[in-house]
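Objective 1.3, modelling of assemblies. Example input:
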Amino acid sequence: MIAARRSLLSWSAFFASLAALPPLLPLLGVDGGGAVQIGVLNDIGIYLILALSLNIILGHAGIFHMGHTAFFAVGAYAAAILNTSCGWPILSALPVAGLLAALLAFLVAVPVIRLRGDYLLVVTIGVVEIVRICLVNNIFGLTGGANGIAGIGRAVILGRRLTTPADIFYLIWSFAALSVLLFSLLENSRFGRALNYIREDEVAAAGCGINTGRHKIQAFVLGAFWAGMAGTLFAVKTRLVDPESFTFSESVMLFAIVILGGAGSMAGIVLGTFLLIGLQEIFRDFLEARMLVFGAAMVAMMIFRPQGLLPARARRYDTGGRTGASPGAAGREKKPGPPAGNGAAGT
Amino acid sequence: MQEFLQQLINGLAVGGLYALIALGYTMVYGVLKLINFAHGELFALGAYLGLTLLTALGLAGGGPAAVALILLFAMGLVALAGYLLERVAYRPLRGSGRLTAVVSALGASIFFQNAMMLVFGAKARVYPGGILSGEVFTLLGAQIPATRILLLASSLLLMLLLYWFIHHTRTGAAVRAVSLDQGAARLMGIDVNRVISLVFLIGPALGAAAGVMAGLLYGQIKYDMGVLYGLKAFTAAILGGIGNIPGAMAGGILLGVIEALGAAYISIAWKDAIAFCLLILILIFRPTGLLGERTADKV
Amino acid sequence: MSLLSLRGLSKSFGGLVAVAHVSLELEADAVIGLIGPNGAGKTTLFNLITGNQRPDSGGIFFDGRDITGLPTHAVVRLGIARTFQNIRLFQSMSLLENVLAGRHCRLRAGLAASLLRPPFQRREERQAVRRARDELAFVGLEEQRDKPAGGLSHGSQRLLEIARALATDPRFLILDEPAGGMNGQETAALMELIAAIRSRGVSVLLIEHDMNLVMKVCRRIVVLEYGVVIAQGAPEHIKRDPAVIEAYLGSGE
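Predicted structure (tokens):
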């Protein structure tokens, strides 16, 4: 309980201090009122939402998934098409974009989820490439080919048009905060635990009565749903979607954020996103050498700190302050709980 | 019929390249159970090193002998790179989880790719076309460039050499033993580390050969060409049953032919999607590949 | 009456017959031992019962219900739990979380309940944690509940697997070499534990090479050789059975 409260507090502090940045940057005399910096933060925010959603799949369930951009792309294009062709307000496309991405994830996952880890990795890479090729080839005449879709309308919230980078900033980061909240509830629950058991040892998890296939599909679809919604936010931000934004290397970047930050650790993923995306934006001038260092760092991390920069911490359980039953063989004399009886303790 | 024949030859030539690259994936997977994501980059490196020597020595009209020379040169250097790759990025991770090794492989891939971009430039480079004869002969009405036949023959020759080595030498038997069961191989007195190092010399060397051939076949190379070729060659390895050496050869040739015919008769725009769809279908319906793979998941 | 019955089960791998037409009636409220030389097909038989492998032919009936070919998680839900010969714990997770894994199939909270945290979800989580602690206490590991499972001694890891299996509310518990890697003292404690499990109304089927343990705790013993049941009966009977003596002496054990 105390641990949970403390973590709530530090997350609130983190998001509150971020929220103070847009009004603060101009006051600090940052060039151009900090518009550039806000833009970078917006990119980071989108990546953070994506990385958090990938974390459920890769970090918690241990599914080697390197095609997350496929779902991101589906969400972004769905929102763009609904907005430009059907005249939907862009934000109202949010749930539909998520659902479409989830649908694709479901169709992909059902036949392949039982494959061994590295096979699955290759399948997900294949999916991201197929999606990109579909986009380039203007599939169903909807995606605009290599040029993509331009002219996406501005988002409107409660009658207010979001025009400045700061407006978008608040939209993206509110969604990021919501993601942190929901995913932390999820990972500290029966569902989250089950994913971790599956990651640690699938056979043992099944032996504990966990339907491993179903949980893996659920994790996959849920992560894709969230990535689809992140795609909508991306469409809001850039107002133009094209295939080049959704390449395999974006998937690799997300994969790296989760692994290097700390699989299963939200704090680690925030740090990873800021480091990988933030530094990438800051060092744009020496773009090439930056990626060289990044690659070498990935190798070095795996050798020296494979658990990531900020590894996941063990869950804490409220054990009610009750002292444990006497340990050792003596404990066996006691008959624990109501024995057997299906779901006796559960319901 | 003419077009079919022409596309078939095209497919066979490209398939030969896929097969050579796929062998590197499949052999490494055999001994380490690792997808060596950096393998595609080693292939590209081979192409660049071949081009570098070609220009440095002014060999751009030298015919088959010059090609053989640059092939050997590129193969030797890339073999060295492969050896170092294993020592630096994979050996320290032996025994840790599969995921860590896969991430390390990705890191190595990014590293190599960007190193090549820094050294050789981000723009595509032209491979001199005149090095092999531009002769075109006609077979059953189809126009077949001599280069393609030569390349196909060279890749087949390399594959035969490898096959002979794996199946008819003691060292080759050691490679097979380590692929089947590392622990048992060690008990039999096989130096597993040496075998793994050897595989990381042979695989990349074959990849480098494919790189030079790809340059000759298409006339230009780019620093990131290893990604797409790598993925397709990996598909070929899966197609044949990963870990299976003849499977990788057959899978590569088959994929090349399917792609060429698909591009000709379905649509060129969807050419790259064919390989990936095939990959997914194979994994769903026959994950052990056409020629099978040895797996044992013990409870 | 029998709780679990196996009818003509067969399973082979490639050309190797691991289990051949095994028919067994395993009664409730008993500890039954399954013994036999290495490679006799004991673990394969376990894997068939718990759905880790599918039989080539034959049927498995639990409490009169056909469970042949059911996936493992469904078998566990019906009340058959197991431990593994080559210990399969969630090594990096705490003892408590390991045992909580066993509770999973008796909890109801799904995705929505995880997010909305209705009262029933909080109550069942509390109860699950309490139950997990009780099971840890039952095997004598309660004090170490927050330590990672991987840090335990071999013998304690076996106990933790038993606690995890018990947390699934089994009616039938399958133990694969529970005394493997235990010292004499630990084995003695294990025998008490098995008796305690029986007295909770859980039937036990175990594979064990420690004949002293098998003879002492089992009411009935089944002997398997080359995938075939060659003898079954009370320990005193098995000790004198010529086929059993032959099987063991013949294989050099």
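Residues 171 and 202 of chain C are 5 Å apart (CA to CA).
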